[in-house]
Amino acid sequence: MEYIEISGGRELSGEVVLSGSKNSALPILACSLLTDKNIALSNIPDLLDIKSMIELIESLGVKAKKKNHNYILTTKKITSHEANYNLVRKMRASFLTLGPLLAREGFAKISLPGGCAIGSRPVDLHLYAMKKLGANIDFYDGYVIAKSNAKRLIGDKIDFPKISVGATENAVMAAVLAKGETLINNAALEPEIVDLCSCLTSMGARIEGAGTKQIKIDGVDSFLETSHQVISDRIEACTYIIAAAITKSRLCIKKINFEHIGKFLEVMHEMGLKFKFIDQSILIEKSKILSPISLKTKEYPGFPTDLQAQLMTLACVSNGKSYIEESIFENRFMHVPELNRLGAKIKINGKNAIINGNCRFIGAEVMATDLRASVSLILAALIAKGKTKINRIYHLDRGYENIDYKLSTCGAAIKRGKNES
Ligand code: EPZ
């Protein structure tokens, strides 16, 4: 298994260029199943999760041609209706093939994704939306068997009792080919939903209200050929902003969408970080000791749960006590025991974390447990005294493109190695 080793204490400098958004690219790759026309996608990041999604949609009939960060996807016909357990278990976002398959073919057999490190990750909201659009849902042998009762799905009102990014994405991808109008209430507002809807609209879908709580969709009969550039990764952007803040470095982060990270920048400003915007870049100034923070993770546009672990690492070196409440997932503090091994003093009380500041991280051997937890360990290692070895970094490669290369070009003493096992 691969590991990353970092010798802490280096200041960073120069610039980081962001990659395309993983959480935008995944549903957009799934939506290629909807159409027999070509879709040209650009700014797709080279990540393990993207490879898994490409493998899955190819198993369903998509022909994918890749050139650097660009893909041409064509699905002349669906060759299989089954998203196999061995592919789905690797990545929960595989469940996003349900909506497109059901919309185009009237039938889908998708392995239940099961839980993961951060929580049980149910799919009840996805299935509720498919039923509202006229699908019959059965379960067999760990699979969801979804069948459209009529020849085509039929538009309807979908009132989500709880906000879900994935369920909103599945509902949109099912509704764009349904007969008549669909109204999705309590939709997720994330920029990745807006990006998916903008790609579908460029294919000829009729969607209003993307990025608001109510999305209205008028089903169409077919799509056009299109090309679409995926937005930059807002979680990657904020992770590098925290890397600059925690190492007290001056760093420029390029190709950033500021409007996607408003709440995060508010929190950074509140903690005392100095930064300025230059065109599509943000310049982080060398920061002094930052103030502690108290916040709760929320659905967009609130503070993202995907930045909770990274912020916690920064809070460890602020000059006071911080409080973070994780309100989205039930088990997203897996990074805490590992951070405490590096010298942090964090206490967990249910969904609340109390973080003592003024921590001096000391390098040690630690283990990555999930994608965002692993990068919180990288951030601590950048300032830890001595060497830190982070094992199981395949978690990292799922969501951060070339993070060791990007950090080393900014001056970090970071190298990747392989454990003999
Ligand atoms: C997306 O996951 C992201 N993944 C996650 O990013 C992100 O943390 C999450 O949204 C929240 O922002 C992708 O976009 C590929 P949800 P998703 O459905 O869609 C509950 C990362 O690190 N829920 O919005 O699975 C669920 O248990 C990943 O990049 C139901 O109860 O998240 C959770 O508590 C991690 N029933 C809450 O809703 C359902 O049917 C939010 O989940 C679906 C979800």
Please, could you describe this protein's structure?
This protein is α/β, with parallel strands linked by helices and 421 residues long. The protein has 2 domains: 2-19 and 232-418, UDP-n-acetylglucosamine1-carboxyvinyl-transferase, Chain (Alpha-beta prism), CATH 3.65.10.10; 22-229, UDP-n-acetylglucosamine1-carboxyvinyl-transferase, Chain (Alpha-beta prism), CATH 3.65.10. Helices cover 31% and strands 24% of the residues. The chain has helices spanning 22-30, 48-60, 85-88, 98-105, 124-132, 165-175, 191-202, 234-246, 262-271, 308-316, 335-341, 371-383, 394-397, 403-409, and strands spanning 2-7, 15-17, 39-42, 63-67, 70-74, 82-83, 107-111, 135-140, 143-148, 157-159, 181-185, 206-208, 214-218, 226-229, 251-254, 275-278, 281-284, 294-296, 322-325, 346-349, 352-355, 365-367, 387-391, 413-418. The protein has a 4-stranded mixed β-sheet, covered by helices on one side. Strands 2-15-17-16 form a 4-stranded mixed β-sheet. Helix 6 (165-175) links the parallel strand 10 and strand 11 (181-185). Helix 5 packs parallel to helix 6, helix 10 (308-316) runs parallel beside helix 12 and helix 11 (335-341) runs parallel beside helix 12. The longest helix has 13 residues, at 48-60. The relative contact order is 0.15. The mean pLDDT is 96. The structure holds ligand EPZ. Ligand EPZ is lined by residues 23, 26, 92-93, 119, 121-126, 162, 164-167, 192, 305-306, 328-329, 371-372, 399. Ligand EPZ binds at residues 23, 26, 92-93, 119, 121-126, 162, 164-167, 192, 305-306, 328-329, 371-372, 399.
